[in-house]
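agent: user wants the structure for MFS transporter from Sphingomonas montanisoli. delegating to structure tool.
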Amino acid sequence: MGWLTVAILFLLYILSLTDRNIMALMVGPIKADLGLSDLQISLLQGPAFAFLFCICALPVGMALDRYSRRVILWLSVTIWSIAAASCGLASSFAMLAISRAGVGVGESGFSTGSYSVVGDSFPPHKVGLAMSIFIMGGVMGAGVVFLVGGPIVSAVMQGGGSVWPILGALQPWQEVFIITGAPGILLALLVFLFREPIRRKKTSIDQGAGYGEAWTFLKAHKPLAVATFLGFGLTYACTIGFQLWTPSFLARVHGWTPAQIGPVLGVTQILAAALMPVHGWAVDRMFKAGRRDAHLLWCMGAVIIAAPLGVVAFLVSNPWVTVILYGLFMALVLAAASMGPTVVQVVTAPRLRGRVSALYVLVTGLIALAGGPATVGLITDKVLGDEKLVGMSLVITIFVVLLPSALLFALGRRSMRNAVEAL
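agent: tool returned. relaying tokens verbatim.
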């Protein structure tokens, strides 16, 4: 039942990232149709989505420690799917931002709820592998956006606008949002195919309805909290920035079309994601063997090795070399995508997992989802002043965003050992 749960959440996570990132393949048409700048596109891909994604994690976290997590997951998938489809009805920056915020509301509940469900479905020394496979669905979702979304976007764009019943005249990019968003309304029902996982210790409202106990736990392990919340947040910010702006780099600098970018980056992203269970398996073995800081140690090494690959990727003149180095970079930094949630589940008492997971989603989401895309767009627009220098913007983010996370992981290792031993 645990692995059936992971399989269903895996599929829904693919859908989640597809709805979240499909905009990356339509930057040009959206900019042209709505008259937007790179900074405004960054705001749509980042803060417009991230603000409510993060804020809504707090009430969701409290609900997860009290009520049925399956019902919360169903509501979450339904809400984000309706909002994703409604992006296709937007005719201005403000309307598109509101719809993107709705996607953030739904995906917030899904991410927070899924972490809690997976954490209670496996023993601590197996959570790393299970979480890696689940998170792999999300990362593969970004690959599916490119692999499947690229040809879809290209075909719809070539077909031009059309008139839909009830909805009226729609631009091609609006049609893409509706085509990719609407199916999730039915797919949300998949969550009722697995059982509600048993909480390992009885949880009641009397054990703390608010976040006081969660804050007390985090303050007792400050270096671990900083490493987990800020360190993983920075790593995600760099990862998301690379995912969302590499297509624009290939289009602006090398003249690639969505039909070319989609399959190439899609396969690259999926291959990189396929290695995520290797990270989880290796860390689980280290943890079982007694290395209680295995998760932070592994991610520290992955970031240090990945950084030079990411720098060189956007300095070379051959786009195929860029793609290869981008793939190697992603294969390494994606270790953090699953290890962050795993650390939260491994070091937190069962009665607190929903609320601590919510705080984790809140902080890392604000840093990564708002900061990652917006930082790249801001550097390109306001510092470098040339949209063709987006590759240099990505290089700069490695030095100012990614590498500091390795230091934070190192500083949190002892605190993590103490937290695990205290359980």
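agent: one observation worth passing along. Residues 222-254 form the longest helix (33 residues).
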